[in-house]
Write a structure and sequence with these properties.
single chain, alpha/beta, Rossmann fold, N-(1-d-carboxylethyl)-l-norvaline Dehydrogenase, domain 2, 2 domains, eight-stranded mixed β-sheet, four-stranded mixed β-sheet, 18 helices, 12 strands, 16% strand
Length: 366
């Protein structure tokens, strides 16, 4: 009898709970880790998570092998370590995991945002990890989900195809082979620069939030984020940011999807302008704006998505004035320096590499 793969899910937010519950329901031995005890106390007491869904196949009690705040205990015997936390915490988790990682383990970031796998790999090396660990990242999160209660999760839908890439890309096939037992939805994403530069949230989330800052603060987000928030002028800003992102990718030899192409591919939504295409996406209707500007659309997406895109652009001679303007506005609004806090190429150890060397690193390793 074949033994099922042992999983650890790091993070007990709505995404982590959904993934842990789903894995448990499918019969995979699954450990759930969270750094704060109060967020997992109810799950620990029950020994699992109640999962609800529009699909009968995804309803039931997802039994967990263990629920813990001890990172060593969480990962030491797992084959697949699924990191389902805000990307702003990836470096912290990498440092915590570094002493306990073992040869042959897989670490997958859900999602990596931009340069997540590169950052994770650098941090574990900096913290003395010499184990032969495969780091990979998903381009986006596989579920649309939410947490309904302290030990509950709800899955609205599972994406049909989610690009995934390992670092280096020569290891992607083995990651896919391993993860397909549980998640056949993952497909080859090329390399981690490709998955990171196809990060559409980087274009949509911060700019729409900042350009609607007054409305968000005066109504506490009581308007439709994509429908009311994307006017012709906002759309033109999004189109400019998207052109810069695609050009940065092109400077690295990568053909990134445009926002229009992504909307057509993901939702079959089309239009003559980005505003029309967004408004032609039925799934965007009813999605409210963030209730405040202190939200992950800024404090996560700016330093972990826009900063690395802009940093790569500056390194390889691409004008990223629009993206930099959004970063600067976020710095002013949040009274912080996201360039200092974010994933710059200097922090990632990429500033000494030319395009060919960077390509070799993500494709084959150094």
């Amino acid at each position: 009898m074949t033994t099922k793969t042992r999983y650890t899910v790091i993070g007990a937010g709505h995404g982590g709970r959904a993934m842990a519950a789903h894995l448990g329901l499918m019969g995979f031995p699954t450990i759930l880790y969270n750094r704060t005890e109060e967020h997992i106390a109810a799950i620990k007491e029950l020994g699992g998570i109640d999962l609800d869904s529009v699909s009968n196949e995804l309803r039931g009690f997802g039994k967990l092998t263990k629920v813990t705040t001890n990172i060593a205990e969480a990962i030491q015997d797992s084959e697949m370590i699924m990191v389902v936390i805000p990307s702003s915490a990836h470096a912290e988790i990498a440092a915590a995991c570094a002493p306990f990682l073992k040869d042959g383990q897989f670490v997958i970031l859900h999602p990596g945002r931009t340069c997540g796998a590169i950052e994770f790999a650098k941090v574990i090396r900096d913290f003395g990890c010499t184990a032969d660990v495969t780091i990979a990242e998903a381009e986006t999160f596989i579920y649309a989900s939410r947490a309904d209660g302290p030990a509950q999760a709800r899955i609205f839908r599972i994406k049909e195809a989610v690009p995934l890439a390992a670092l280096p890309a020569t290891r992607t096939a083995r990651v896919l082979e391993k993860i397909h037992e549980a998640f056949p939805q993952f497909i080859d994403g090329g390399n981690v620069l490709q998955t990171g530069l196809n990060n559409m949230g980087a274009i949509f989330h911060p700019a729409i939030s900042l350009l609607n800052a007054g409305w968000i603060e005066s109504t506490h987000g009581d308007f439709q984020f994509y429908i009311n928030g994307v006017t012709p002028s906002v759309s033109r800003v999004l189109e400019a940011l998207d052109r810069e992102r695609v050009t940065v990718a092109s400077s690295l030899g990568i053909r990134a999807r445009t926002a229009m192409e992504w909307l057509t591919l993901a939702y079959n939504a089309t239009g003559d302008t980005l505003e029309e295409a967004i408004h032609n996406q039925p799934g965007y209707y009813g999605i409210k704006a963030p209730p405040m500007l202190n939200h992950r659309y800024l404090f996560e997406d700016v330093p972990m998505s826009l900063v690395p895109i802009a940093s790569l652009g500056q390194r390889f001679g691409v004008s990223v004035r629009g993206i930099d303007a959004i970063i600067r506005l976020a710095c002013i609004v949040h009274r912080t320096d996201y360039w200092r806090r974010g994933r710059t190429i200097e922090k990632l150890g990429l500033d000494v590499l030319d395009v060919d060397e960077l390509t070799q690193y993500v494709m084959e390793g150094l």
